[in-house]
Amino acid sequence: MGLLHRSLSDILRIDLNVGALDQLQWRDLGKGLSMSRLAREGKRELILYRIAANAASDAFLKHEHIGGEFYLVLRGKIADETGEYVKGDLVFLDQQSVHTPRAVGDTVVLVLWPEGVRIVD
After folding, report:
1. String of b and e for 61-76 (b: at least 16 CB within 10 Å)?
2. Of 9, 15, 35, 103, which sees the most CB atoms within 10 A?
3. Gyration radius of the chain's alpha carbons
4. How far apart are CA 50 and CA 47, in angstroms?
5. What is the 3-state secondary structure (H, E, C) of 14-68?
6. Domain 3-119 has CATH 3.40.50.2000
7. Cα gap 78→119, rounded to integer Å
8. Which residues pair with 65 in a beta bridge?
9. pLDDT tens digits in sequence order for the chain, 121 residues long
10. Could you tell me the pTM of the whole model?
11. 22-31: long-range contacts at Cβ-Cβ below 8 A with a sequence spacing of 24 or more?
């Protein structure tokens, strides 16, 4: 699986507006995982994930990124088969990449799927 990773912490300061986050429409996916769709056009989606500190380790299902995936960790930490990524880390996974992410602690992640996702058995 191809991976492109860069920390933006040395050039960006990320301060989340918790009040604004709370005003978004959140869909509870269970196991401590919530999703808010910010934009969608065809298969492209821009979403926020909010993962509770006590979320189940299997809150995210194993999935494939048809056209790849970009994500920016806004708070907390995401770990998967490729490594661990913290606040300020920008990650790109190649087309057809497959992974099973899990959050470490209270986490917020901004995700762009250029061509959607598919759950993998």
Report:
1. eebbbbbbbbbbbbbb
2. 103
3. 14
4. 10
5. CCCCHHHHHHCCCEEEECCEEEEEEEEECCEEEEEEEECCCCCCCCCCCEEECCC
6. no
7. 19
8. 97, 117
9. 678 899 999 999 999 999 999 999 999 999 999 999 999 999 999 999 999 999 998 898 888 888 999 999 999 999 988 899 999 999 999 888 888 899 999 999 999 999 988 888 7
10. 0.91
11. 24/48, 26/50, 29/59, 30/59, 31/55, 31/56, 31/58, 31/59
Name the amino acid, one letter, at 60: F
Cα 98 to Cα 51: distance, rounded to the nearest angstrom: 20
* Residue 70 structure tokens: 């970009």
Residue owning tokens 């910010």: 38
Task: Give me 68's structure tokens.
Answer: 């790849």
